[in-house]
Amino acid sequence: MRVFITGGTGLIGTAVVAELLAAGHVVTTLARSDASAAAATAAGAEVVRGSLADLDVLRAAAADADGVIHLAFGNDFSSPEALAANVAEEAAALEVLGSALVGSGKPLVTVAGTPGVPGRASTEEDPVPTVGPVGGRGLSIGRALGLESQGVRSSAVRLPRTVHADGSGGFAGLLTQMARRTGVAGYPGHGEQRWPAVHAADAAVLFRLALERSPGGRVWHAVADEGDTVRDIVEVIGRRLGLPVEQRPVEAFGPLGPVFAADQPASSARTRTELGWEPTHPSLLDDLELIEA
Question: Within this chain, do residues 220 and 233 fall inside the same structural domain, yes or no?
Answer without folding.
Answer: no
